[in-house]
Amino acid sequence: MHRIDHPTAVSVRPTVAAAGTQGYFTEGDPLAGQEATWVSADWLNDLQENIARVIEAFGAALIKGDGAQLLQAIRGLISTEGGLPVGVPVPWMGSVASIPANCVPLMGQTLPRSLYPLAANHALTCGIVVTDADWLAQAVHRTKFSLGDGATTIRLPELRAELIYGADIGRGVRGGNIGDWLGDDLKLHNHPATSNNDAGHDHGGLTSTDPGHNHGFEGSPAAGNPDAQGADAGASMLDLTQFVTKYTSVNGAHQHGIPWGGVHNHIINVLNAGGSETRQRGVGYPYIMRVK
To answer: Which helix (H) or strand (E) holds 287?
Structure first.
């Protein structure tokens, strides 16, 4: 869109004529003596200014030959002054194929700046944009915009399977800057557990049945002096070299009870449980963003 730039144009708008009776254009009818409608400078200037000022209110400069400026300006003004702004992720309750034509899913893809000037302008000025090299190399940046190739594209945030929290902005609840990706985590905690203290009990068990056995021990010989060399005649003495192995009697088949253990506790082991991630209950829909 551009203002008239013909050599016959003037730099100052002429004084507007007094308003007449408003009506409609006609091609005229010579048989009925009806002239065709004259197109006046006042009417053309009104038309030109009503179009140009919408584009300028959006903040764009008029570009001769660009027939899309009015449409872009209207969409942009709606998004900033009454509609859903560019840059707002919203869940779409439908399939990816059913997403409206003026929106795209936020899945880390690149967009041409020339085809999506509103999205490109937001990405480059929103304050959460990084180089594409950093976006690709560091997971913490993948939920932000990137500069794309630095000239003709931008890259959108990757929000598939992500949950959006309110940014901390200095409150101190959780770390991370605006737009930083936060991996799943579980707050530090413990699992205290004890068994009941028992004043004493047995476990009601028995050993296996033994078919019967005896116990061997070292016994001394009867008093006497079978070899009393060097001793007085008739003395009674034990020869300590003459101890012999003796055995108790066989007790027969029997069992042994297991005694109770007195006052004691039992160790409790807490086993691992859970799945592949920490998450709250919910449902998944694709995040989309207006780009036109």
So the answer is: strand 287-290
- 254 burial type by CB count under 10 A (0-12 exposed, 13-18 middle, 19+ buried): exposed
Say yes or no: 101 and 41 in one domain.
no
Residues 6 or more apart whose Cβ sits within 8 Å of residue 5: 64
Range of the domain at 124: 96-186+281-290
pLDDT of residue 119: 95
Who has greater pLDDT, 281 or 80?
A: 281
Q: Which residue has the higher pLDDT, 64 or 251?
A: 64
Q: Which residue has the tokens 């400078």?
A: 41
68: alpha, beta or left? (left if phi > 0; alpha if psi -120 to 50): alpha
Percent helix, strand and coil across the chain, each rounded to 5? 20, 15, 65
Quick one: pLDDT band at residue 164, thresholds 50, 70, 90?
very high
Domain boundary among 50, 81, 112: 81
* Count of structural domains, the chain: 3
Specify the DSSP element, H or E, that contains 121: helix 117-125
Do 172 and 111 belong together in one domain?
yes
Q: Are 148 and 286 within one domain?
A: yes
